Amino acid sequence: MKSKTINIQIFQSKLTIIFDKDLSYVEKKYKTKSLKDFGAVTLKDESKYRHYVVAFEYYTGSIIAHEIVHIINYLYLDCGVELDRVNDENQAYLSGWLFDEIEKFLNK
């Protein structure tokens, strides 16, 4: 198992990225329901302020992109940011940045 926590400074939040052979570590640490049939998961760490967790037991670009949608939705809900389908540059930039950070960690 390997993990890394990064700062998402503009939203004063943190993201922990986890890669493991299965998601049992995440189940135990964050007291989730069974993640047996999941390949990846995104959740909020309720014990900390604006701290999110994304965990993978395997990944592709499309799986990373899928989880990024969940991360951004958590961030926007917690920060009171409305999705803007006309002026979506902030969301697009954040998606790209998160993808780069997650992929860099997973490919180490």
Q: If you had to describe this structure to a student in words, what would you say it looks like?
A:
With 108 residues, this protein is an alpha+beta fold. It has one domain (2-106). Helices cover 41% and strands 23% of the residues. The chain is built from 3 helices and 4 strands. It has a 4-stranded mixed beta sheet with strand order 1-2-4-3, covered by helices on one side. Helix 2 crosses helix 3 (89-106). It is globular and about 40 Å long. It starts with a strand and ends with a helix.
- Element-level helix/strand string: EEHEEHH
Q: pLDDT under 50 segments (min length 5)?
A: none
Q: What is the gyration radius calculated from CA atoms?
A: 14 Å
Distance between the termini: 13 Å
Structural domain tally = 1
Strand fraction band?
15-25%
Number of helices: 3
Strand order of the largest sheet: 1-2-4-3
Helix fraction bin: 40-55%
In total, how many beta strands? 4
- Main beta sheet: 4 strands, mixed
Structural class: alpha+beta
Globally, the shape reads globular
Return the average pLDDT rounded to an integer.
Answer: 96
